[in-house]
Amino acid sequence: MSTIFTVFGLLNLPSNITLYLDSLIDGMKLHRLSIDENESLAGLGAQSEEVSLRDDPRFRRTPDGRWIPATSSLANDLLYDQLSTSPLSVPDIIERLEEIEERIGVHTVFCPADPRFVLTGRYLRLAAHELSDEPHIEPTLEVDWQYVTHLPLLRLEDVAGWKTPVDEGDDVLEIEDVLAGYSTEHLNEQVSGWIRVHLNRPLNERMFIARIEDDSMLGESDGVGSCDYALFTYQTRESETGEPVLVRGINGQTGEGFHCLRQIRRDGGLIHLEPRNPDRRLYPLLVLNEMDGDYLEIVAELTEVLNRSSYVRAPKGSALIDDCRAKRQRVSQMAVKVAHFFDGGGVPTVESGEEMRARAVCLKPAVGCLQIEIGPLPKFPKFIRQLRITGDGWVRDCDVEAIRHRTVRVVVPPWTRRLSWQAVGFEDDELIDLSKLEVEALVKDRATVFKLDLEEKGLLVRDPRLRQSESYRLLISPDLLSDLSGPLPVTKIEAGWSIWELGEIAAYDRKELVERLIELGVELREEEMQLGFVLIPPVEWCRMGEDNPIPRYLTTTGLVLSLMGMAGGEEEWVLLLVSDQGYQMQPLPADGTQLLRLQDLKPGCYGVEIYDRGETRGAMRLFFEVVEQPPGYPKAGCRMAIGEEWYEFKAGEVRIAAPADLRVLDRSASTGESWMSPTVQIEAPSGWPLTVYWRSTKLETLYRSNADEQGGFDMAALLEATRHRRNQQIPGDLIFDLRELGRLIIPHRCQLDLSAIQEELKQLVHVHATTVQRGQGEYLTLIPLWFEPILKLLGYTIADGPQADHVAGFRVLRLIHEESTPGGYVRQVTRLLFLVRELSAEIDPQLRREMDQILSAEHLRDSLLSDGMRWASRRCRSTLPVRVRDLESTIEEPDGFLDLLREMGEGI
Amino acid sequence: MTSIESITPQDGYMLLYELTGADPTRSSAVAELVRHLVSSHSPWRYQSLLGEVTRLIKPVREIDSEEIRLVIEALEADGDLVVNGGAIHATPIRAIRLDGQSLRFMSSLPTKRLADLFPGSWSCQESTRSCQPADSSRIEMMLRERNGALLTPEGWAGLDYEPQADEDWLAGVESRMLTDAFSPESEVFDHRMTWQWLKYGETSLRWEKAPAPQSARLWRGINLRGYWVYALTRSGSPIEMEWLKLARNDAYRAIFALARSRAIPVPVRLELGGAGSNHDTVVLTLPPVLPYAEYRYLTALANSRHSGPHGVRWWLNRARAIPVVEILEKRLGVKFPSWPPQVIGQTGLPFGD
Closest to A454 (Cβ–Cβ): which among B48, B151, B161? Predict the structure, then answer.
C-alpha cells in the first residue's frame, strides 16, 4: 500500500494501481486524444472495478465523458469555431493541435466523442447535423478555382440587368457576349459570393447559381420555390425540355422593364409566361403580344435545382449564412399573427369554441365594479334563453338574447372559486358544454391584477408582474389587506375586498412601490425592452375588440417606433415589417434606445416584430394600420325630437318652438308606450354639455348633463328634473341650451280643458271632503293638502299674505298669477284669499273692514273667501252679501262649475 | 418599399416641430399633440390622455403632468375640447367672425388639418387659433360643407344664459348642499386627496396648501385620475366639513361670487397700452379663473392675450373696452380702476412681460 498525495487529500491505493495510473497519465501527456475510462483501466484486470479516474485529481473529465490530463487544454471549442468559419477546411488534427499548443504553451488535446465533429483518421470535419441547409458562401475566391470547383452566386435581378424603368444609358449585360465566351467582368461586380458545388457535370463560365425569390415556379408537387438555390445556364433560346427560363422584357404599352422566371408557351403572336404556381392572385399569367410592342428576351435556363448535397453547406450559426428559410418561416409566422390580430375583431361564434369566452373585468372602484363580461355570441344556441353564473353561494342570471347581439356585463361579488355557467332549463343536458365560459377564481393570497385599457376598464391578467409602461388596478382580499404592514389608499368594495387604483406605474417612486407590491405578492418587472409608437400620434384608433385598440396612421405621416433596453448583449436585432403588401427586414444596431421612422407605407394592416436572430431574448411586436384618409369629426349640429317632430338647433341662435303643454312629455317616460306616446330625444356631439332652464319671471337651472358617447342624454333623468315645472299650470319656457350650438325654447302652456279641471276637482273633493269638514281652521294641514291644489287648478300659486299671524278670525294668502305677455313673463299678486272659520253670505262688518284694509294696503281690489268647502269672491269695500258656492255640489252642475271658474279662476 | 430609417432625438424634435408647427418645448406644441390625440379617439380618459402625451413626447423631452393639465384646461376654455369629469371629448368645428375678415376657430382638429380644410393665413397664439381665409366670401358655405358652424361673438359667448356671479347664484349652489354634499373626508375618488384652498391675494389669486383659515370655502385637489376636483364647503376644509363637488365652470364662478358676497377685492387691472402717444389699446389683467361665458366673451372681443404670473392680460381696442369693463363688473362683481386708466405704453405689448 502506498500513499498518493494529491491536492485534495490522500488516496490509499494498492501500489500496483498507483503505478498503473502514474504510467497512464504519463502516456496521456504524450498523446493528443482523450481516453475512455474503461478501456484505459482494462489493463488492471479485476482490480479495475476498484478504481475510478474521478478519484484521482490528475485526470479531468471532458463534457463528453472521456478523460484528459487535468493540466491539459481541451481544444474542441476552439476547433469548432475555426471549422465554423471555414467549413471547407479538413485539418490534420495532430498538426492543428500542435499549432495550438505552440501558441498557448499548454499540452493540448482533442476529445473525439464530441458529437459536433467527425474524425476520419487524422482528419477532422464538422458533423452533418452541425451544418445548415444553406450553402457556404465564400465572399472571395482565387481565380484558379472559379468555374472549376465553385460557381458564382448571383441575384436574378442583376443577371436580368434591367431596372425599372429601363434607362437607355444602363450598362446592360449582352447575353450574346457571355455566350460568345467574352469576359463576365460586368457580372463579377454583382457576384454575392462563390459556392463550392458537387455536380455531375463539368462547370463552365455560362453557369451561375441564384436563389429563387418567390414561389411562382413552385407547382403542387414539383418545381422550385422561394429560398431554393438553382443552377442556371446563360442561353437565349427557350428550354428544349420545358424548364423554366429567366426572361427579361419590356411592356410595350408602359415602357416598363421586367424580369421573371417562367415557362414559355407560344401561341401565334402571343407569348404566354406561365407560372407553375396555381395561385393566379399572387402569380398571374403574363401574356405578351409582339404586335403591341411587347419585347421579350431569354437570359438563362434553370438547369438544375440544387439540393443540400449539391454544395458545401454552411455551418449553423455561421455569420456568413443567409438563412432564407428561417427568415421565410418567421415571416410566414408573423403574417399569420398579423392576420389573426386584425381578424380578432370579428364576431366570435359558438362553433369556434376558443372565441366563446367570458372574462372578468374591474370597472372604476366602487361596489359593483367587479363584472363578468360575455358576448356578443350571435350563434349561441337559440333554444337557450337564460344563462346562470354560479359563484360562492350566489347566482346571477343573464339574458342570452342580449348576449347574442352585444357585450353584456353581469355585476358579481368577489369569487374565490371557479365561476361555472349553466343554461337555465337545460342544467342536466350534457351536450351543452359551457366550460369555455368558466372564469378562474380570484386569488386570495396575492393581489389580483387588472390591467387598464384606454377606457380605464380593468382586464384581468394572470401574470402578477407589472410593466412600467402600463396602468393597473389591484384587487385585494380581506385577509391579505389585514396582513399588510401599513395602510394602502384602497377603495372598499363588497365582502371586505378592496381595490388599489394603482394607475400608471411610471408615476410612482419605484423603490417605494416595489416594497408595497412585494407585500401584495406582485412584482414590478425589471427595466425591460420596450417597443412603442412615439412622436407621431395616430390619426385614429380602431377599436376592433376592446382589448386591442389598433392605431391607424396616415400614409402621409408614417410613424415612429421607439425601441428601448436593447443594449448590453451580443444579440443581433432585426426588424421585420409584415403586411398584406409583403415584408421587409432590416438589421438594427443594438443601441440602448432607438427611434425608427417608417415612411412610404401603403394602406393596409401591418405587424412589426423586433427579434434577436439568436433568439436569446423574446421578440416584441406591435400592430397598426395605415390609411389614406383621416377619419371624420363631430358635426356642429344638434337636434331634438318631441314625438315625431324634430327640431334642429341652429348654431349661435335661439329657436322658439310652438307653445306646447309639456306635461305630455311624461307619458312616454312613465308608461313606456312609445308607440302611442310622444318620445323625447336629443342628439348632440359626444360629450357636449346640455343645460335645461326653466324661465318664467326668472331663469332657473333644472338639469345639467353631458352627452354620452353616442351623443344621447339620459332622458328619464331630464324628464324627472323638469317634471315639477312642466306639470304646473303656470306658463314658462323650457330652454334646452346646447351652448353655442344653439338653444331651443319651448313655451309651456298648460292646456287643461274644463272637463280635466272638473275631474281633478271632483277627485280632490272625493278624497279630502271629510278631512276638510272636520279640520276647519287647521290651515297648516289644509293649505298644502286642499287649498294649494284647488288654487293651482284655478290658475294661482300661493304665498303667505300680509300680517298673516296677527289677524284674528282669518288667515290671508296672496294669490299669484303668472302669465306670458309680449314683454315677457309677468308674475303678480292678483287677489288675496281670506281663509275664514265659517263662510256665509253675510260677512261680519268688522271682518269686512279688516279685509278691506288689507286689500287696500296691497293695492288689490278682488279677493276670494273660503272656509274649506265653501267659496266666494268679494270685491273691496263691497257691502253686498257674497254668493257662497259649495264646492261639492257646484262641481256637479255644468253651469255652476263654469260660473265658479269665471268668477274665481285666473287665466283659464 | 417602406422606408425604415433610424433617426436621432434631434430628428425627432424637428419631426415634432413640423407636426405641431411649434417648438416642442412650448405649450402650443403640447396643445397640438392633445388635439391630435383627441381627434383620433374620443372620449379619452383624463389619466390615459396624460400618459399618452407623456409617452409620445418622451424621446424629445420629459413633461410634467401639470403642464399637460394646464394645456387641457386652456383647450377646454377655448372650446377645443369638452371635459366632462374624467372624460375628454372631441368638439366640432366652430368659427367666430371677428373684426374684418378674420375668423377664430374652435375645434379639436389639429391645426394642419384645419388649415387643409380652410385655406388661408393661420396664426396660433397659446391655444387660440385664428385664420384670415383665402376666400372670405365662401367661408360660410365651406363651414356648412365641412359640418361646421359660423358664430357671432355673442352667440359664442352665450352670456344671456349664464348666471352672474352673485349672491343669488351662490345661494342656489349652496342649496344643493342639502342633497348633493359629500360627507367630510369621503373617499368618493377612491383615495384621500390633498386639498388646496383659494387665497384671495392682493395681487393674485392663489391655491395654497394647508393651513387654511376657517373662512376658506373654495378648495381643489388632484384626483388620482389626473384632473382637478373643485369643492365648496360652508367653511373650512373638505377633510373636516361636508362639501359640494363643483364643475370647473361653477368653481370659477364661485370664486367671484364669494368675493362679491364678502366684499373681497379681486385683483384686476385696467391700463392703457399701445405704441407712441396713440394709446389706442386697453389692457385688462384678470385672474386666470374666468368662468367660460366671460372667458369666451373676452376671447371673442380681445385682440390678443398673454398669460403672466399675475393673471391673463387681454388687449382690447379702446373703443370696446368700456362696455367690456361694465359687463365684467356687473357679471363678476370685480372693480376696475376708474377711467382714465394708467398708461403703460410699450410694455403693454403682447409678450412684453
Answer: B48
β-pairing verdict for A245-250 and A295-306? antiparallel
Q: Which residue of B has its CA nearest to A588?
A: B6
The rounded distance, in Å, linking the Cα atoms of B324 and A210 is 82
Helix then strand count (H, E) for chain B reads 12, 19
Q: Which residues contact A302 (CB under 8 A, 6 or more apart)?
A: A217, A224, A230, A231, A232, A239, A243, A244, A245, A246, A261
Q: Of A352, A249, A247, whose CA–CA distance to A300 is shortest?
A: A247
CA distance A75 to A91: 13
Give B270-311 as a DSSP string: EEEE-STTT--EEEEEE-S---HHHHHHHHHH-SEEEEETTE
Closest Cα in chain A to B163: A699
- Beta-carbon separation of B93 and A699 below 8 A: no
Characterize B291-322 residue by residue with b for buried, 16 or more Cβ atoms within 10 angstroms of its Cβ, and e for exposed: bbbbbbbbbbbbebbbeeebbbbbbbeeeebe
The closest CB to that of A636, out of B36, B84, B148, belongs to: B148
Q: Which element (helix H / strand E) includes B168?
A: helix B167-175
C-beta atoms surrounding A95 within 10 Å: 10
Lowest model confidence (mean pLDDT) among B61-70, B283-292, B335-344:
B335-344
Mean pLDDT (10-residue bins), chain A, 908 residues: 39 77 90 91 82 88 92 92 81 92 93 92 88 87 90 87 48 58 61 90 90 87 87 84 86 81 87 89 86 84 90 76 74 84 50 60 87 82 84 85 81 88 82 81 89 81 81 90 84 88 76 86 78 93 67 94 74 85 82 86 92 74 92 92 86 86 67 51 93 82 90 89 82 89 87 79 88 80 86 85 64 84 77 89 88 89 91 91 90 85 83
ipTM entry: 0.86
Per-residue burial over B146-158, b = 16 or more CB atoms within 10 Å of its CB, e = otherwise? bebbbbebebbbb
A845 close to B (CB below 8 A) = no
Extract the runs of DSSP E, i.e. beta strands, from A14-97.
Answer: 59-61, 67-69, 73-74
Q: Strand A59-61 and strand A67-69: pairing? A: antiparallel
Number of Cβ atoms within 10 Å of the Cβ of A255: 11
The shortest C-alpha distance from A575 to chain B (Å) reads 9
Q: Do B155 and A652 touch (CB under 8 A)?
A: yes
pTM above 0.95, yes or no: no
| pLDDT over 90 (residue B98) | no
Q: How far off is chain B from A867, nearest CA to CA, in Å? A: 36
Instruction: Find the CB nearest B152 among A454, A532, A652.
Output: A652
Q: Which residues of B touch A539 (CB under 8 A)?
A: 36, 39-40
Q: DSSP characters for A514-577?
A: HHHHHHTT-EEPPS--EEEEESS--SEEE-SSTT--EEEEETTT-EEEEEES--SS---EEEEE
B349 pLDDT more than 50: no
**What Å distances lie between residue B83 and A634, B17, B261, CA to CA?**
15, 26, 29
| CB neighbours of residue B166 within 10 Å | 17
Beta bridge partners of A656: A745
CB-nearest to B40 from A504, A541, A653 is A541
Query: Which residues in chain A are contacts of B299 at CB distance < 8 A?
Result: none
The CA distance from B118 to B150, in Å, is 13
Residue from A587, A562, A592 nearest A577 by CA = A587
Asked, as a colleague might, if the bond just before A57 is cis with ω within 30 of 0, I would say no
Render pLDDT for A38-64 as a digit per residue (tens, 0 to 9). 888 888 887 877 788 888 889 999 988
B15 contacts A597? CB cut-off 8 A: yes
Most confident of A130-144, B24-38, B186-200: B24-38
